[in-house]
Amino acid sequence: MWQYYYAGESHLVVELGSTIDLSINSDVHALAGALVALQPRGLREVVPSYRSLMIFYDPLVITAPELRAICQGLMKFKAICRPHQREVLEIPVRYGGELGPDLEQVAEETSLTTEEVVAMHVRRAYAVYMIGFLPGFPYLGGLDPRLSLPRLKVPRTKVPTGSVAIAELQTGVYPLSSPGGWRIIGRTPLRFFNIAESPPSLLRPGQWVRFRSVSGDEYAEIADLVKANRFRPRVVLMDAEHA
C-alpha cells in the first residue's frame, strides 16, 4: 500500500515501499513517467529515489489531495506499466591496474580471480535507481551478490573522476573527483556530468546501463574522442525480462 506524506506546502512524497528493491524502484520510475506524460495542472517536477517519489507542485494551482487522487487513479487503472523493452547504455571501462586499484583486493575477499570479478561485473545490466551524492552520480542496482562487499573502513580523500566502484549490492561511477568509500575496480573515460550539456547528467533515474571491458589502447582512443566531443555511447535494446 502506498503511503503519502506532505513535505511542506508545495511537495508531496509518495512512498511505494519500505525496502530497496528493483520492483519497487521500477514502480517509482513508472509513476514518475506517468505523471510527466499526464502533466496535471500545477505539476512542477518529479524527483525519484530508491522507493519514493517527491512531487513538486504549485499549491496555488493544485492541492496535495488532488495530486494524491491522481496518483491513486494511475495505480487503480493500471496506467503504471513496465516496458517490454529497455534501452541499455553501454559504458566502456578499463579494469584493474592504476585505474582500478581495488580490483585485486575485491578478488581476494570474494575468493575469485580478477578475471572472474570483471566477467561478473560486465555480465549484468544495471538499473539506475537514483542520481545523488554528487551531481550525476548513478546508484546502480543489480550487482552480482558474489561481489557484494562493504564500503572501505577508511574512505579515500580523493577518488578520480570516472572511477567505477562497487559497494554492497550496488555499483556506480564517480562523475567528479571527490572523497569516497566505494571499492574502485576500474575507470571509464565517459563524462557523467557536464554542466555545458543539457541535461548535464549522462544518466537519468530509471535508465539501464551495462559495462564493457576495454583495453588500454581503446580506453585512450575513447578518451580522446570524448575530449573532442565526438563519442556517443552505444545504446542497445534488450527485453525487459532479460535486462
Structure characterization notes:
The chain is an alpha+beta fold and 243 residues long. It has helices at residues 22-38, 64-76, 103-110, 114-123, 216-227; strands spanning 3-6, 11-15, 43-48, 52-57, 85-95, 125-131, 138-141, 156-159, 163-167, 170-173, 178-180, 183-187, 208-213, 235-239. It folds into two domains: 3-76, Gyrase A, domain 2; 85-242, Cyclophilin-like (Cyclophilin, Beta Barrel), CATH 2.40.100. 25% of the residues lie in helices and 31% in strands. The protein has a seven-stranded mixed beta barrel, surrounded by four helices. The two termini are 27 Å apart.
Structure described in brief:
Helices cover 25% and strands 31% of the residues. With 243 residues, it is α+β, with helices and mostly antiparallel strands.
